[in-house]
Amino acid sequence: MDGAGSAWSSLGGGMILPSKLKEEIENLKLLVRDMRLVYEAELNMMKNEMLSMREEIGAIKNLKTEEKEEYNVFAYVDPSEVGIVTEVNDDRSDVKHVKGFVVPPLPVENDEVAEPADDPTMVEVHWWDGLDEDGISFELANLLVEHIVRDGGIMNNRVWAEVYPRGLKVTKKMKSSVKRILDEIDAVSYVQVDRLRGLYFDTNKEASDVYQELTGKTLNS
User: Is residue 97 part of a domain?
Assistant: First the structure.
């Protein structure tokens, strides 16, 4: 029984895949990775749009609140002028009564806003904490793809200022890894502008149009 089990376990162990099949498998792996980067970029764009919508809704709510306060009679008329008197109460001396109706006390305005005290025990946390160089490179490539999908492209000399987070130390190995990942993504193309500068752009767009939109200049082909 042991001999039979050993024979079955070694079956196919020495099989060599054809080079064409191996190439197709590698292409599928790259395609899956490209799709993941694009989908993550679109998902992050949707998250940013939802956050912007929430901020707009909050601003509208604050505007409505300010409009209500604008038409509050107590903002312009002293309560005593409209017959509101204060009745001393054992529990609440600041509650006012108007012909049987209870009126809550007016809010006390305080221009001084207490600022939170600095906590020396708090440690700033970054998304790259705990990741190795390969993991950080993949996330940086994802940020670049997201930026390119949103804005159409980016000059390579603007990557540090517009995409990479401040405080992150990018090593030479990480820069090479990001460049290699972008070179393998079909959705992103690259064109050399001059001796030092290059343009990463959306493959679905024309490099000359993207360059003119970003710099206001004409790309010399």
Answer: yes
